[in-house]
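Fold it.
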Amino acid sequence: MKIIETLHPDGRSLLSYALALTLLTGVLQGCGGGGSSSSDTETGSESSDTSTDTDSGDNDENEETGEDSGSSEDTGVWIVNTTGERAPFIYENNSNEQVLVNVQSVESVTVGGKEYTRVSASGIPDYEILITENILNALLTRPKINSDFLNGSPNIQEGDFISFGQDIGYRSNASCGAEAGYGFWPPGPVCPENVSHQGYIPKSPEAATEDCETSLGVQGYWVNGTSIYQWSDGQSVNNTWHTLAPLAEVYDVDVCGGHAANGDYHHHFYSDCLANLVGDVGDAHSPIYGYTADGFAIHGPWEGDGQLAISSWAVRDYDDPSSETGCGTAGERSCLLVDEYDTSKGTTSTNNAGPSTSGSYTSLSGNEFDTSAGFFYEDYYWDSELTAQGGAYLDQYNGHTDEERGYHYHLTVTLSDDAQLVPAFPFTFGPRFYGKLDDQTIVNRCSSTIGR
């Protein structure tokens, strides 16, 4: 990989979690964090704001017409399983038959006069992973290695090739069986299963005319038919300070940076496994990694040869009492931004103070994290001046427009001191949808609450 881009101006915020992110960048070659109080967890009801098959047969206006299997102009980007390939280690429930991998079908359909790409997939990928020095070191430096692995350490070595779901020695969730990939996933998350989801993606997406917050659960599909999840893990401190899945769940994801909730395998952030799948090596603009519910594509982290796309979300300065984004006392999280999209509106005090920037947070999996600036959603604001610079800088939705691709999102990362790609807020797209949702799309309504 050719790397010449410098760090995002606020990349230091994520690099403050050097220990945890060393593991994260290793598994890239989080869900189920926790806190003193929380909303729905990823093993709960996060899918209540999503729809994976919203076609209504009772409404003539929504009747599907013009189905033409495989004719979608988007078919080329999808990893369609045309040979009946099955997962080597993941089986159908109560069956001796293995699950079909990747996407099963891609069709062009018209519903209510609007054209969609209808994608049907099992939600199970077919990743083949080379165990690199970084991956192995990340596993060996887990803070709870003795209890995370059945024998106190992984049963793999550098240079091994493993398949998705292969036992590497983890003490997986007790609900997982050998036929569900026991040993591939760290303690906590459930094992993935065939979710057989189907989603409608607008073929001619339109910009939204009102603000539309993303939500928990499925927000789109990656090109292999696995689910796109957003920044939130459904957890918070004092119902106010929302934790970020790529940070709080860093020890809860597999070596591809993914895991399951309610059986649904998903990624919250950039993964080398996805990059390898689409052949993204950083020598040109990244290809498409997936599509969000609004119909706009998510490309990988590269804007060009060696040039990263850059998030325009910045981190609040809590340590300077005079900072317009701080709370008046160094290190305190005792105030919230009135509007994270406009810092000129100032801050407002809260009775639900968060941990100080020298404090700590313990996740549901029992791992402890430093809560320096950048650990919570409420630590970020959109810096319009960065977006105004154009070029590689992205907008408030984590996207931009160019002549070749039109509007598109980017996965965002920064570079660590040792040239590893580190996920950077808001990680995938958002926090809001750029485009319109409708009754047919994978997500058919906007969230009414941040992080839910």
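Residues 1-452 form one domain.
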